[in-house]
Amino acid sequence: GRQIFQPLHTLRSAEKELLPGFHQFEWQPALKNVSSSWDVGIIDGLSGWTASVDDVPADTIARRFRYDVALVSALKDLEEDIMEGLRERGLDDSTCTSGFTVVVKESCDGMGDVSEKHGSGPAVPEKAVRFSFTIMSISIRADGEEDAVTIFQEQKPNSELSCRPLCLMFVDESDHETLTAILGPVVAERKAMLESRLILSVGGLLRSFRFFFRGTGLDEKMVREMEGLEASGSTYVCTLCDSTRAEASQNMVLHSITRSHTENLERYEIWRTNPFSESAEELRDRVKGVSAKPFMETQPTLD
């Protein structure tokens, strides 16, 4: 009496469920400007970038995962650690379905010269840049509890074993325009995820996660690049305040963190439009070394 034949599409989806790295998930509310399909693999690094009128099409090869898909995959890899953490803290996993907080550290750095010395492969730029992330900690605030309990902490946050590549691109890290074109969509996805919760099955139950992103993994060169500051030879020596080299050498103590992403954007506009018709020198002094459009906010944290 019971029919055992399944229609083909049902078998297909059952089969897909068994593939590694293939996890069904949902965002509530749905992510803005990001497709809701969750079975997404490796995509072209430039997809999601909408060229504006004065942008030259970026001539580069880049490949990446969609940010949310990569985060889901990372969480599923930590599934056993999450369940173990709940057990160790004496938490009943059936009541812990919401209130999870995930802290993600982002890193981005040049990978140096990767040119093919004597091959006959495609001609590509000699430099490559990798953008990656590490899940630093997962905590949960149980119902009615004041304090969050940490159930997972990455023991080796700087190891490449815990660092997950998100985007690989053939580009020199000082090519601000191409970096903007490729990482712009990544930043847009990250921004969308901040305003939403991820619903994902962990340990057989649907649970909800919120994400926080930190960016210490960027070396100073990259921070300058992302925040639109002049390069390392600049008289404005600090990526956090407006000190010049001379001022810093006179006074190592009275430093305050004065820069913000928004302020750098405003300064870039002044640099671009020169509203007071100043000379290059005066203008430069006014914007304190912000000479390109910053596109990525780097939030420092302790590693």
Automatic annotation (TrEMBL):
Domain V(D)J recombination-activating protein 1 pre-RNase H, first and last residues per copy: 26-98
V(D)J recombination-activating protein 1 ZnC2 domain mapped to chain residues: 236-298
Span of domain V(D)J recombination-activating protein 1 RNase H: 102-234
GO CC annotations on file: DNA recombinase complex; endodeoxyribonuclease complex; nucleus
InterPro entries: RAG1, RAG1_DNA-bd, RAG1_pre-RNase_H, RAG1_RNase_H, RAG1_ZnC2
Domain V(D)J recombination-activating protein 1 DNA-binding: from-to ranges: 1-25
Domain of life per record: Eukaryota
Gene Ontology molecular functions: double-stranded DNA endonuclease activity; histone binding; protein homodimerization activity; sequence-specific DNA binding; ubiquitin protein ligase activity; zinc ion binding
Any single GO BP term: B cell differentiation
Protein name (Swiss-Prot/TrEMBL): Recombination activating protein 1
Native source organism of the sequence: Chromobotia macracanthus (clown loach)
Lineage of source species: Eukaryota, Metazoa, Chordata, Craniata, Vertebrata
Gene, per the UniProt record: RAG1
